[in-house]
Design the sequence.
């Protein structure tokens, strides 16, 4: 923190104020306040001085102690006749809170998040090191970092954590929550708000940016009932990213299902409220709910219509209870 100014408080508006900044570079400021002759401060709790500070955008946001000393001027409280009065000086701790923004970890769209969804929080100094949860149940602390979610009724709960690093943190949100407070292992406190609804659909992308080829697999059911899983994305070294892999729908006696992964979908009002347009046309959504064995991850099973043959790269547009997710793609040969 850096000192900006000092002014008389609401309980001493008629006082004369002198500020000594000769030692401000050492973190000390002298403040002398005097009332007009014959006047005294009223009994009780009073705000007599307001001190303002600037906080560095990249500085340490750990709790900071502000205390009283005898430099550059000695501590003293005097009465109306300039006689010294007994006084107790109590230090206090200032907790500097940084801001954080929480979005869907699938879409990265800042349009609210859903109950039990996977959420990504962004900010500065959210963790002192990188750590990822390696087992279930997910922990409520990673690398010393905790996330407390407080709802509109004032009830606070700890979120389950997946991954913690300095600038980003992934967690699973709670129901009807509003305020999210992140405390790092180093004591840095970051806070933000998030509108949490029943659904806030987002689809994961292979490149983990909410765009481009979908993070999905295809399930081919052959005429004899044999089931084969196929990838819909492949890594392109020249582009240093995942690109769409051509998906064949095969002969008429085969069915191909697209299995998409997302979050913020499971609390849909009904399966009929879930719509997926593939290349502008409706595809049959046969399942939309939790992905078995994963916390916060949702899954959609979609039967691809044969009319898509030869369409090439097509957009996938998901709508759940009237809310539209981010657009991802697949390639139909």
Sequence:
């Amino acid at each position: 923190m850096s000192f900006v100014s000092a002014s008389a408080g609401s309980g001493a508006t008629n006082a004369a104020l002198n500020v000594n900044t000769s030692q401000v570079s050492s973190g000390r400021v002298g403040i002398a306040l005097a009332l007009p002759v014959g006047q005294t401060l009223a009994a009780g709790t009073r705000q007599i001085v307001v001190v303002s500070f600037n906080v560095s955008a990249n500085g340490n946001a750990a709790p900071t102690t502000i205390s009283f000393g005898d430099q550059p001027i000695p501590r003293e409280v005097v009465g109306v006749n300039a006689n010294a009065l007994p006084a107790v000086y109590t230090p206090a701790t200032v907790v500097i809170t940084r801001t954080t923004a929480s979005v869907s970890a699938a879409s990265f769209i800042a349009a609210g998040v859903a109950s039990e969804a996977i959420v990504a929080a962004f900010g500065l100094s959210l963790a002192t090191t990188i750590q990822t949860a390696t087992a279930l149940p997910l922990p409520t602390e990673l690398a010393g970092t905790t996330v407390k979610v407080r709802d509109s009724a004032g009830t606070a709960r700890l979120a389950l954590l997946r991954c913690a690093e300095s600038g980003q943190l992934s967690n699973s949100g709670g129901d009807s929550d509003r305020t999210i407070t992140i405390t790092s292992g180093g004591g840095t406190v970051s806070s933000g708000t998030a509108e949490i609804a029943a659904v806030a659909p987002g689809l994961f992308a292979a490149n983990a940016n909410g765009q481009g080829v979908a993070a999905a697999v295809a399930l081919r059911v052959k005429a004899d009932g044999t089931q084969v899983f196929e990838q819909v994305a492949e890594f392109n070294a020249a582009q240093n990213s995942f690109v769409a892999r051509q998906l064949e729908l095969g002969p008429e006696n085969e069915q191909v299902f697209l299995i998409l992964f997302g979050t913020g979908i499971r609390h849909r009002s009904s399966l009929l409220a879930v719509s997926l347009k593939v290349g502008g046309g409706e595809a049959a959504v046969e399942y939309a709910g939790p992905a078995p064995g994963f916390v916060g991850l949702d899954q959609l099973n979609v039967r691809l219509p044969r009319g898509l043959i030869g369409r090439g790269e097509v957009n996938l547009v998901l709508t759940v209870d009237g809310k539209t997710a981010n657009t991802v793609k697949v390639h139909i040969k």
Q: What stands out?
A: The chain is about 0% helix and 45% strand.
